Amino acid sequence: MRRFSVSSVEQRVSLITLGVEDVARSRAFYEALGWRGQETEETVFFQAGALAIVLWACDKLAADAGIDDAGVERFAGIALAHNVRQQAEFDDIIAVAVRAGATLTAPAHTTFYGGYAGYFRDPDGHVWEVAHNPGFTLDDHGGLQLPDFGAEG
Amino acid sequence: MRRFSVSSVEQRVSLITLGVEDVARSRAFYEALGWRGQETEETVFFQAGALAIVLWACDKLAADAGIDDAGVERFAGIALAHNVRQQAEFDDIIAVAVRAGATLTAPAHTTFYGGYAGYFRDPDGHVWEVAHNPGFTLDDHGGLQLPDFGAEG
């Protein structure tokens, strides 16, 4: 049930996910900077202006992105995310990226949080996730607002 | 002439700098996504919501950040930036980061654009720049607004 199609990718970033060795250690680091986050599913989310910075185990991020954590592709443990408002936009965005020269590393797949995600790399190997997460709000300007995850982790 | 001091780092990101092999190739990639940027000083800036994504030669970024581009530290060619409103905040922010466990890779230095910058790495090696750029506007929420660089590159 496609409502519309897109021919380009909105010029924005929704999440910056830092792949980390030890989530607790990294959370402690960012909290020592004065930041306050919320932990859910062994992942820490920091609302940072109109986007979110996410701490997640590097091996899980690499696996999720379909990228070898320590292999020749030198996964850097960082991923940028572009969240879309509707699942209908998803395939078009991926198609635009692939036409632009992106390498798809993880085709579209449903996620444990009831969403939909896929990953590609840009020509230098920088990792982008395209995601639809029905629990995250995107404002009119594409700014992402995290939900209240219910409890401080 | 310090006007105030800070004891924590605001919870936000101002720039995402992607270290790239070939700026023109990377710009073409992002433009093929439908993005429009401005080029100045062999650097491409894309306004992306309340932050900017920057394409810059990886070797220059590594050198600027005081990080070995291809060595044991495995520089990933990506840096997050935290821009401050006044140079007076700068040293305090760096001090907070170092106390939190950051490793300073490039001490505070003046920049060619009339600003001030330094870099640190977090415990996993993720690269952060702290910068004061008098030409970039930060809104009340810390959102960064690029200036008009004067000409499309």
Summary, kept brief:
The first copy, chain A, has helices at 23-32, 58-65, 87-99, and strands spanning 15-20, 38-40, 43-48, 51-57, 78-83, 103-110, 116-121, 127-132, 137-138, 144-145. By secondary structure, chain A is of the alpha+beta class. Chain A has a single domain (15-142), classed as 2,3-Dihydroxybiphenyl 1,2-Dioxygenase, domain 1 (Roll), CATH 3.10.180.10.
Structure in words:
Two copies of one chain form a homodimer. Chain A is of the alpha+beta class and 153 residues long. Chain A has one domain: 2,3-Dihydroxybiphenyl 1,2-Dioxygenase, domain 1 (Roll), CATH 3.10.180.10. Chain A has helices at 23-32, 58-65, 87-99, and strands at residues 15-20, 38-40, 43-48, 51-57, 78-83, 103-110, 116-121, 127-132, 137-138, 144-145. In chain A, the strands form two sheets. Chain A has an eight-stranded mixed β-sheet with strand order 2-3-4-1-5-8-7-6. In chain A, strands 9-10 form a two-stranded antiparallel ribbon. Chain A starts with 14 loop residues before the first strand and ends in an 8-residue tail after the last strand. In chain A, 45% of the residues are buried. At the A-B interface, strand 1, helix 1, strand 3 and helix 3 of A face strand 1, helix 1, strand 3 and helix 3 of B.
